[in-house]
């Protein structure tokens, strides 16, 4: 039995019928590489069963403390049933991309039973007219509760149910998994009493650890290693209000090589800056068409992984966050990329100065009862309509495998969509995912807030195409010296403090 940490517990506290706190993917597979050229549902079940021991997530369930007086615990589920977690559906004809997006959104919108291990995989057949994929392909719609994984630990779960070749044998080691007894209320309340006595000591320790970061932040402001700006204060938008239980999902796939080539507009920019600028351009187009574009820039919360190498296989979340202005007020592509690069460089400097790891440690000492009551109050009195959010959307960047991988012998053709959870005040969120030679920008939105996801997906495509064309125009003038953009002082200086690793 192992207790959740503060950030993991916050996703449990935020769970509601309108805001299920799970993330996932739509994955497309080609069974041509499997034995006999096809994969049956029972082959998938057997493949998963043989590899259960490679994942900590698959057979652990949550046990909540009565009245949420303390953080929940993970236990090995004594009632684990694989066939409950792996489901099977088929699209009606013609089985096209739009139908697949609708089915994926409906599956993603349904909350999971948190008295069972918090994951579900739905096998989807009938994809005969989905984009350019070969006939006979099938998909996985995956759901895993955010309390169990972040973007990086989710990769380890993917590794457990995938192989590097279509014919990899199951693990040789014996499966020594053992179920645990579900603890009773008295035992859980006793543990919560002890933790309540120890928590003030933990809070004092975390406060002491935060002092150097605060000092570094003050020093950075004085020496102008970074600066505070009104650009980090988000405007009010249509996406920042209470949400319904209905979802839409969509996205576009791009060439990873072409995405990287857009950096010709600003060579010192990172791929993550390019993705942010593409999303900023798409939001500019979408909201201009709605006559609802704010004068100031919209901002995104960009998660940053602080997971160390020895925590690679651990469950739970090890992330901090930075605020990234998206340049939605700038129509020019090169200027928007330069703006995004400068702002993200400034945000990284602030995060480094404060200490990203320390920021995550602070969340581990917040009482769950207060988080649960606060989330319920926020939802029930519709505070999202009245209280300004600290950011307008989310853009998280998750690196995928650079080579093809296989499940039950079938080759994964594409990580076609990545799915993310929403909360009141956050009706639109994005994931940038790479796989082999493609980069996919996906989004999840509240259906009531964005009833036209295909139009926003087209805006993403147009934003990418226009930035790529502008980059090619720069490359087409080899004899003309392009004046180097002036880089902010933040980008030039090496900031002090702990270095953080982005989720890219």
- What is the averaged pLDDT score? 84
- Rg, Å, rounded: 23 Å
Regions with little confidence, pLDDT below 50 for 5+ residues:
485-504
- Main sheet makeup: 7 strands, mixed
Strand pairing plus helix content: what structural class?
alpha+beta
**How large is the share of residues in beta strands?**
15-25%
Percent helix among the residues? 25-40%
What does this entry look like structurally?
Strands 8, 9, 10, 11, 14, 15 and 16 form a seven-stranded mixed β-sheet that branches. The chain has 13 helices and 16 strands. Helix 1 packs parallel to helix 11 (about 370-380), helix 6 packs antiparallel against helix 10 (about 355-365) and helix 8 (about 270-290) packs across helix 12. It is globular and about 65 Å long. The chain has about 500 residues and is an alpha+beta fold.
Q: What's a concise summary of this model?
A:
By secondary structure, this protein is an alpha+beta fold. It is about 35% helix and about 20% strand. Strands 8, 9, 10, 11, 14, 15 and 16 form a seven-stranded mixed sheet that branches. Strands 5-6-7-2-13-12 form a six-stranded mixed sheet, with helices on both faces.
């Amino acid at each position: 039995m192992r207790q959740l940490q503060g950030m993991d517990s916050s996703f449990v506290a935020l769970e509601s019928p309108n805001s299920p706190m799970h993330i996932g993917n739509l994955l497309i597979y080609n069974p041509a590489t499997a034995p006999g050229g096809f994969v049956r549902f029972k082959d998938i079940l057997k493949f998963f069963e043989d590899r259960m021991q490679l994942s900590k997530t698959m057979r652990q369930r949550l046990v909540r403390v009565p009245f949420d007086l303390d953080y929940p615990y993970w236990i090995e589920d004594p009632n684990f049933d694989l066939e409950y977690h792996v489901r099977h559906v088929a699209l009606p004809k013609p089985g096209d991309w739009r139908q697949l997006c609708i089915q994926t959104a409906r599956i993603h919108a349904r909350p999971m039973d948190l008295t069972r291990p918090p994951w579900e995989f739905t096998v989807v057949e009938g994809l005969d007219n989905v984009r350019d994929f070969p006939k006979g392909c099938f998909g996985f719609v995956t759901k895993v509760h955010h309390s169990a994984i972040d973007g990086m630990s989710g990769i380890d779960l993917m590794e457990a149910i995938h192989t590097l070749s279509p014919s990899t044998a199951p693990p040789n080691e014996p499966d020594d998994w053992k179920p645990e007894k579900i603890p009773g209320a008295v035992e859980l309340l006793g543990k919560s009493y002890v933790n309540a006595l120890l928590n003030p000591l933990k809070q004092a320790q975390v406060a002491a650890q935060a002092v150097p970061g605060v000092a570094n932040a003050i020093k950075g402001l004085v020496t102008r290693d970074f600066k505070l700006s009104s650009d980090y204060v988000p405007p009010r938008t249509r996406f920042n209000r209470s949400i319904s239980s209905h979802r839409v999902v969509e996205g576009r796939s791009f060439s990873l090589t072409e995405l990287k080539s857009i950096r010709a507009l600003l060579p010192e920019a990172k791929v993550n800056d390019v993705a942010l600028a593409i999303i900023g351009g798409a939001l500019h187009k979408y909201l201009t068409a709605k006559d609802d574009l704010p004068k100031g820039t919209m901002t995104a919360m960009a998660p940053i992984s602080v997971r160390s190498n020895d925590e690679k296989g651990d469950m739970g979340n090890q992330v901090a966050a930075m605020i990234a202005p998206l340049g939605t007020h700038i129509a020019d592509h090169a200027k928007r990329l330069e703006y995004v690069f400068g702002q993200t460089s400034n945000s990284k400097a602030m995060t480094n100065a404060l200490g990203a790891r320390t920021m995550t440690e602070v969340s581990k000492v917040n009482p769950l009862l207060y988080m649960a009551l606060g989330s319920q109050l926020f939802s029930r009195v519709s505070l999202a309509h009245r209280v300004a959010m600290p950011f307008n959307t989310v853009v998280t960047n998750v690196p995928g495998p650079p080579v093809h991988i296989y499940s039950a012998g079938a080759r994964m053709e594409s990580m076609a969509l990545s799915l993310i959870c929403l909360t009141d005040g956050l009706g639109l969120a994005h994931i940038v995912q790479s796989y082999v030679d493609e980069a996919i920008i996906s989004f999840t939105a509240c259906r009531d807030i964005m009833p036209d996801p295909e139009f926003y997906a087209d805006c993403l495509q147009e934003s990418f195409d226009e930035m790529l064309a502008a980059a090619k125009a720069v490359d087409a003038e080899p004899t003309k010296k392009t004046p180097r953009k002036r880089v902010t002082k933040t980008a030039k200086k090496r900031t002090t403090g702990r270095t953080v690793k982005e989720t890219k």
